[in-house]
Amino acid sequence: MERIKLDGKRINQILNEVLKTIEGSKEEIFAITEKTRDEFERTKSELEILKKKSEAIIRQVDLLEREEKISRQKLLIVSRDFNSYSEQAIKDAYEKANNLRIALILKREEEKALIDKRKNLELRLKDAIEVLDRAEKLATQISVAMGYLSGNLNTIIDTIEDMSKKQFFGIKIIEAQEEERQRVARDIHDGPAQSFANLSLKVELCEKLLSIDIDRTKAELKNLKQLVRDNLKDVRKIIYDLRPMSLDDLGLIPTVERYASVFSEETLIQADVKVFDAYSDIDSIVEIAAFRIIQEALSNIRKHSKANHALIKIECNEKKLYIVINDDGIGFDTKEIYKNTDSLNGGFGVIGMKERAELLGGSLQITSVIGKGTKVIVTIPINRKDDTNE
Predict the structure, then answer these.
(1) Fold of 250-381
(2) Poorest-confidence range of 25-34, 117-126, 323-332?
(3) I need a surface site. Which of 132, 161, 244, 378 has the fewest CB within 10 A?
């Protein structure tokens, strides 16, 4: 679990760095946006001035064209009828026409330059509008992203940590399943398998003794019968540990009461069961989860608590199942639960109890005071409807 916590801190650091980077990018984009807006306003202003100049030039060109046309007509008349005009009049007409022609050429060049400049400014203005629009949209999107990340940072971290925890618990569950299979295989190998091999030898011995020594045969058959009973007891215990049939036949409370009774006989730790409300319509998945939690809690009491007495309180209504398991043992530091998971039933233990409850939408809390015992509080919704039960 420490690795997961460190991952959470690292994720927090990464997300904060991302936020800082986005914040810096946001400021840069705002600066670009403002600069683009200034450029847009400046180009727009220049274009307005240029439009006015262009209009004035166009009017001047029109006026010059009319004057130049009149001067050419007059020059044509003077040239055609030069005898009626003095040499100076002819010279003045020619100079005026020539000056107006030059002025018109220059003004037209000026008009053409203004038109080209106006087109360039209009293109710049169009580009500035597009850039400004994109910059404003990008600034808005970054602001939205900043608001989302800033407002949901804790949720994101919690979600990632929750995913990490689920992966961690999934691995632990698989490990526990494999260890349970190994335990069952070991129990069968060391118990019934060895006994059945002994039974086979006993049967062969009885066959040989039957015609030789009747009394010895009877004694061996008596031992054989006891051995069969012991084997049957061992097999039933293994089956019970895998899944108590009484859960299906009698329900949770009778199964817990029977298990507590056997627990008391085997461990000399007095385990009592108190039932306050016994609502019977409970999903089987809730019953097996609750039984496994109680089973694990009693197992931890036997292994670690050095207790003399344990009390299991069960209350069940139409909505929730409440279980409280107390012991008067030595207690422990609850902060060490996730640091020392390997010491609690092969890495499953308390974490497995908590995960069982949470997977069913419930909760599990543990309070313990060193020297004053431990209390496990379990709450599980009953009649749970999900994909597995529909």
Answers:
(1) Heat Shock Protein 90 (3.30.565)
(2) 25-34
(3) 161
Q: Where are the domains of the chain?
A: 2-169, 175-238, 250-381
pTM: 0.47
Fold of 2-169: Helix Hairpins (1.10.287)
Nearest one of 18, 8, 29 to 149, comparing CA atoms = 18
Three-state SS for the chain is CHHHHHHHHHHHHHHHHHHHHHHHHHHHHHHHHHHHHHHHHHHHHHHHHHHHHHHHHHHHHHHHHHHHHHHHHHHHHHHHCHHHCCHHHHHHHHHHHHHHHHHHHHHHHHHHHHHHHHHHHHHHHHHHHHHHHHHHHHHHHHHHHHHHHHHHHHHHHHHHHHHHHHHHHHHHHHHHHHHHHHHHHHHHHHHHHHHHHHHHHHHHHHHHHCCCCHHHHHHHHHHHHHHHHHHHHHHHHHHHHHCCHHHHHCCHHHHHHHHHHHHHHHHCCEEEEEEEEECCCCCHHHHHHHHHHHHHHHHHHHHHHCCCEEEEEEEECCCEEEEEEEECCCCCCHHHCCCCHHHCHHHHHHHHHHHHHHHCCCEEEEEEECCCEEEEEEEEECCCCCCCCC
Which of 188, 193, 305, 303 has the alpha carbon at shortest distance from 238?
188
pLDDT, mean of residues 141-167:
63
Strand-by-strand arrangement of the 320-327 sheet: 270-278, 309-316, 320-327, 373-381, 363-369
